[in-house]
Amino acid sequence: MKHSITSRSKDVIIPLYSVLVQPHLQYCVQFWAPQFKKDVKVLEWVQRRATKLVKGLEGMSYGELLRTLGLSSLEKRRLKGDLTTVYRFLRRGGGEGGDELFLLGSSGRTPGNGSKLHQGRRFRPDIRELFFTQRVIKHWNRLPREVVNAPSLSAFRRHLDNALNNML
After folding, report:
1. What's the angle, vertex CA 54, arms to CA 50 and CA 60, rounded to 5?
2. Does 27 share its domain with 104?
3. DSSP string, 2-67
4. Which tens digits make up the pLDDT trace of 120-162?
5. Could you tell me if 128 and 58 lie in one domain?
6. Maximum C-alpha span of the chain
7. Span 76-94, pLDDT tens digits
8. Domain total for the chain?
9. Are residues 148 and 115 in the same domain?
10. pTM for the complete prediction?
11. Hey, how many other C-beta atoms are within 10 angstroms of the C-beta on 66?
């Protein structure tokens, strides 16, 4: 992008980044989630480099750049994708073998959303913390009730954005 585009305005760089680069950074992240800090740093470095292409925002920190440009960190986008996948899975029904992935329990005594996920099937202890099902349970259980009980996917995403802004 840097060598092929002469304009450095926000109106040119951000749409190009969103169409040409971001899909490559997010491809299959629900299955392959970067587990090492060095992998996360490399992925964030690509986005940081693209945001630095915008003229007039050179002195800002990375967080300020993201807020100004209306972007979110790739880690936050991965979390949103994970939680959206869980929402779709739970709303659609598990399908074949899906009932073994999550156990949905409700508890009115605990704070949070009242619909708590528990891990269904047990795996070897040394590898299970990297699995999608293990990764999302903690985050899902921390979501507020209005997010989990959203009537549609668009409402879920809207409420999830608000909840993640407050949580992260």
Report:
1. 90
2. no
3. TTT-----HHHHHHHIIIIIHHHHHTTTTTS---SHHHHHHHHHHHHHHHTTSTT-TTS-HHHHHH
4. 555 555 555 667 777 788 888 889 989 999 999 999 999 999 8
5. no
6. 59
7. 888 898 899 888 888 876 5
8. 2
9. yes
10. 0.72
11. 17
The residue among 54, 71, 88 that closes a domain is: 71
Name the residue with tokens 């169409």. Answer: 19
Let me know whether 83 and 42 are in one domain: no
Distances (CA, A) of 103 to 90, 123, 128, 137, 150: 10, 15, 16, 10, 19
Q: Which 3 state secondary structure label does DSSP give 106?
A: strand
Provide the domain limits for residue 82: 78-167
First to last CA, the chain: 30
Domain assignment present for residue 15? The answer is: yes
